[in-house]
Write a structure and sequence with these properties.
Number of strands: 3
Strand content: 5-15%
Structural class: mainly alpha
Largest sheet: 3 strands, antiparallel
Strand order of the largest sheet: 1-2-3
Helix content: 40-55%
Length: about 180
């Protein structure tokens, strides 16, 4: 089931004393983030898988944060003067502070990504291996062995303990 609730936006607390106001993540913002990722991948085709995955994730998140952030409280310049994301260079400086970017990513991008991932999967199968199906299934364990089937004419399978009766070999040259 897809829930039509909006992910967090508006004023979000990033850390004690620091809040930021974000617009809702929309299709235009997601397309811009994807374009930024494609550009990065085109410019860096030889990166190792781990480095590439980390950088792609960072670029995607940072692009969404830049596009969605409107204002903040509790952030100032070196002299203690209040500045806003619209101040030249302020958003770039914000993006260089790992603690701020991680906080914005956790509060703004991650909830959206989790909701988006939820929309892109199949519904749990009642007889499959999904988390929901596994919860509901009764699983046989050594504490609760499977019940023996009633005799319906099927022969028991051979096991290592039950050998087949040897058939005598035919004497050569006889019919």
């Amino acid at each position: 089931m897809i829930r039509l609730e909006e992910p967090p936006h508006g004023w979000l607390t990033l850390m004690p004393g620091v809040r930021a106001r974000f617009d809702p993540i929309d299709r235009v913002m997601v397309r811009a983030a994807r374009r930024a990722v494609r550009l990065f991948l085109d410019e860096n085709p030889d990166l190792e898988e781990v480095d590439r995955q980390e950088r792609v994730s960072d670029i995607f998140s940072q692009t969404l944060i830049r596009a969605g952030m409107r204002e903040w409280e509790g952030i100032g310049d070196i002299d203690g003067n209040v500045i806003q994301p619209s101040t030249p260079g302020a958003l770039d400086t914000f993006m260089q502070r790992a603690i701020l970017v991680e906080a914005a990513d956790d509060a703004y991008v991650l909830p959206w990504a989790l909701q988006d991932a939820e929309k892109n999967v199949s519904a749990p199968s009642s007889d499959g291996i999904s988390a929901r199906a596994t919860q509901d299934m009764t699983i046989a364990t050594s504490a609760a062995p499977a019940r023996k089937a009633k005799d319906k004419g099927a022969k028991p399978a051979r096991t290592a303990k039950k050998s087949r009766v040897a058939t005598p070999a035919k004497v050569s040259g006889t019919s």
